[in-house]
Amino acid sequence: MSSNAQQERRFPDDFLFGTATASYQIEGAWNVDGKGENIWDRMTHTKPHVIKDMSNGDIAANSYYNYKRDVEMMRELGLDAYRFSISWSRILPNPLAPYEVNQAGVDFYNNYINEMLKYNITPMATIYHWDLPQKLQDLGGLLNPLFPEWFEDYARVVFENFGDRVKLWITFNEPIVICYQGYGGNVKAPLLNLTDVGTYYCAKNLLLAHAKGYHAYNNDFKPAQNGECGITIGVTWYGPLTDSEEDHYAAELKRQVEWGIYAEPIFSEQGGFPKEFAEVVAQKSIEQGYKKSRLPELTEEERKFIQGSFDFFGVNHYTASLVSANEHKTVNAVPSMLDDVDVGVYTPDDWLSSATDWLKMAPNSMYNVLTHLKEKYNNPALYITENGWSQVPEAGLIDDDRIVYYRAALNSVLDSLEAGVNLKGYMAWSLMDNYEWMKGYTEPFGLYEVDFKSEAKTRTPRKSAFVYKQIVKTRVIDPNYEPTEMVMWIDEGH
Predict the structure, then answer these.
(1) DSSP 341-379
(2) Between 400-418 and 365-376, two packed helices, what is the crossing angle to 10 degrees?
(3) Backbone phi, psi, residue 321, to 5°
(4) Which residues are known to be catalytic?
């Protein structure tokens, strides 16, 4: 397609452009004003060696005190919306006593939300983005069958306090990271590494918790507040390495285990866990000497309760891989989720690499994901709730690879809109550099650079910020646009 033709393609005027962040990654103030301890506080303080630079989120970008500057950055970018998350332990220091609400925590989010609304920026709030109160983890966290009740209690507090102004709610961010990386593996807090059943038991309780939160909102808050509630699922595209039937099946199995296990029960017409994957786990479990499948069953009542519990599907999308039935396999723990699917995954060397080992720029991956979800789940309302690119901190303000990535992703979004995908908005990850979980501060994703060494945690726009601002303003991707404001901004002594 010629660049002129690309320039003629426009995003709809009501399409929401925004950016995204998460509480533990930006807020700091880890033990201030009554906030309780969460699992990331505990892990980074007691096992600092698991973090690449042995850092923590105690201060991070210090948004607890810098929130007005954050909103000023949103205004500089001309954003329509901003996705942030709420810290459970800041709102409920004792999560088992949901009526003991920490007013200082509520005040912080009220101030943040009100500052956004003052400038017509639509708040999109994630209720849970990985920072579980430590007290709940001590009781088993998401493996405790009481977890859905705990989550509903917390969600009701949040709806009650902020739902008069927040109209876009996300229950959970990226279930696979919570369940597989935290419970089934040891690459995110709480590092349980229960490879046999951790992922699967967590998945069932998370789905029930999501549905409880959704129905609480739908029944008791939506009639007065008129908002929407969905869930955000990380959807990496997995395509077949070759056109063989085996590789197509392997790719489908990989899609089911990575995100279908969470999406299928909510968004499919039949509900329940993905059929092929459930059969594979059941078969392997019996072969391994278990009396029944390691993937717990959903009762008919639970299946119906979870099915259809959405107003929209939030998609975090970054990259893709190719899947083989027989090649590129690695050794996995037995039993484990990865051993259950037993497929090989390959990423071509010629895809542009970021600073993050799993993140490469894959051709048309955004389009593949969005059109796949459209066909599979009867064209639900979708939001891209994260999409972005990392670089090394030393790369500075001229982030041309990030600009290449964003332009490619957003052209793929336009292709998807033209294909009839019901896509409502796009949140770039991230507004600013932040605490990148196990990678600490070594792989920043921000449109704004944060000077973590400075007392003020000074924020400075990168070149990509000016390019994104131009796209938001004009609703057009101009491949030749060079931000002259940045030159002027630097000339002015910034």
Answers:
(1) H--EEE--TTSPB-SSTT-B--TTHHHHHHHHHHHHTTS
(2) 30
(3) -145, 160
(4) 174, 386
Q: Alpha-carbon dihedral of residues 147, 149, 155, 156, nearest 10 degrees?
A: -170
Per-residue pLDDT tens digits for 458-473: 999 999 999 999 999 9
Say which residues have a Cβ less than 8 Å from residue 56's Cβ, sequence separation at least 6. 30, 40, 41, 44, 45, 48, 435
On the 0-12 / 13-18 / 19+ scale of CB atoms within 10 A, 462 is: buried
Alpha carbon distances (Å) from 450 to 223, 229, 455? 41, 32, 11
How far apart are alpha carbons 80 and 472 in whole angstroms?
A: 8
CB count in 10 Å sphere of residue 19: 28
- In the block, tokens 């940045």 appear at 486
Instruction: Please tell me whether residue 461 adopts helix, strand or coil conformation.
Output: strand
Distances (CA, A) of 411 to 71, 92, 363, 414: 27, 42, 11, 5
Cβ atoms within 10 Å, residue 97: 10
Tokens 């002027």 belong to residue: 488
Closest by alpha carbon to 236, among 321, 330, 352? 321
Which helix (H) or strand (E) segment holds residue 77: the answer is helix 63-77
Q: What is the largest CA-CA distance in the chain?
A: 71
Tokens of 421: 């995908």
Strand pairing class (448-450; 459-461): antiparallel
428, containing H or E segment: strand 423-428
Amino acid at 106: V
* Element housing 220 (H / E): helix 198-220
**Amino acid at the residue 304:** K
Rg, C-alpha atoms of the chain: 22
Report how far residue 359's alpha carbon sits from residue 389's, in angstroms, rounded to the nearest whole number. Answer: 8
User: For residue 484, what pLDDT is reported?
Assistant: 80
The tally of CA atoms less than 13 A away on the side-chain side of residue 383 is: 31
Name residue 332's amino acid: N
- Token pair 């089934």 is found at 184
**For the segment 12-21, what is each residue's pLDDT rounded down to a tens digit?**
999 999 999 9
Whether the model pTM is above 0.85 = yes
CA dist 195 and 310 (Å) reads: 29
Q: Reading across the β-sheet that carries 320-324, which strands appear in turn?
A: 237-240, 320-324, 344-346
